[in-house]
Amino acid sequence: MKLFAAIALALLAVSCVRQTRAVRAPAARPTATAVARPTVWDHQIQNAIDAGDGDYQLRALREKVAADPAAIPARLALAQAYSGRGYHDVALEICRLAAERFPESGEVRLALTRTLRDTGRRAEAIQGMEAFLKARPPTGPEYLSWLGILRDESGLWPLGEPAHRQALELAPASDSLHNNLGYNLLMQAKPAEAAAEFREALKLNPHSETARHNLALALAGQGSAAEAVAAWQAVTDPATAHSNLAAVLIEKGNFPEARQELQVALGYNKSHIAALKNLELVSRLDGRPAAFKLKPAESRWTRMKAGFRGLFVGPLKDSQPDAAKTASARAAGEEK
Q1: For the segment 137-153, what is each residue's pLDDT rounded down to a tens digit?
Q2: pLDDT digits (tens, 9 = 90+) for 11-31
């Protein structure tokens, strides 16, 4: 860590102007000695320096950090700028240094947590956030929410649930927190509880497409197919809604009903990509053909031709019933 810290500090202090070196007389040729090769990290640092020297925003941020080392926003902005340019390892070291220098800063902890997540270091992010929350009570729901999200993304669904619930205790009117808890419950195979959270999220934010989609998933998991399709159709087209339900049914192993939903979906749109892929998947699973005999819808021109025929061709055969048929019809009417 000390080596990385020295490198990162050197990075922050780089001048924005390249210095030219004075020409010297050639020195005596040294004897052959082992020379350490630059590491990948050395190349990363050098590339970041080279990029920053020609980037006005990076130069300005580095100058701010150099002028005021205690300026947390400038450090975090510099880390974000490097991350945005693809230098995620450099951004991570800047955040780590900031966390070491300002261990009480929640802003720094959140930035470090996000950067660790972006670089695939979720376990380290979880440990750091757990230690941070153990040392001090959370001042806002975002710390607990991030802890829940990281645990969820690591497949630790039962451990993620209490973090989401604690976050909601601090901000019960947050639709996103209700949605996060609902998704956690859905992944724990608790569709009824999940649906309740998604409905609460929609009460707080009726325009949340994410919550409505997740509600449809929860309803499908409960077996409420019609309600699930209705929820999906509120945010998408009918073909997609039925294809989504088919995907849930395929996952549950209910291939016959999945095929029925796919037939409905392809009836709406025979070229629907997702429905065709789902049909191909279910055919591999149940061994049946990946095709349907879709009944073409009667066109408006067909209906018009039938109308013209009635007007100009005249009455059809048997259009005037005989006396026996008339009497039978009358008798049936009297019985009713």
Answers
A1: 998 999 999 999 999 99
A2: 333 223 233 333 333 444 444
Which residues make Cβ contacts (< 8 Å) with residue 258, sequence separation at least 6?
246, 247, 249, 250, 278, 282
Residues in the chain: 336
CB 181 within 8 A of CB 147: no
pLDDT at 37: 59
- Other CB atoms within a 10 A radius of the CB of residue 209 amount to 11
| Class of residue 294 by CB neighbours under 10 A (exposed 0-12, middle 13-18, buried 19+) | exposed
Q: Within a 10 A sphere around the Cβ of 195, how many other Cβ atoms?
A: 25
> What tokens were used for 120?
């695939």
Averaged pLDDT score across all residues of the chain: 80
Is the pLDDT at 161 greater than 80, yes or no? Answer: yes
For residue 17, the 8-state DSSP code is S
| Region of residue 122 (phi > 0: left; psi between -120 and 50: alpha; otherwise: beta) | alpha
Measured distance CA(281)–CA(287) in Å, rounded: 10
pLDDT at 169: 97
Q: Tell me how far CA of residue 191 lies from CA of 67, 73, 117, 214, 314, in angstroms.
A: 54, 42, 28, 10, 61
Q: How far, in Å, CA of 186 to CA of 218, rounded? A: 7
Distance between CA atoms of 200 and 209, rounded to whole angstroms?
14
d(CA 202, CA 210): 10
What CA–CA distance (Å, rounded) separates 135 from 275?
51
Percent of the chain whose predicted confidence (pLDDT) is above 70: 71
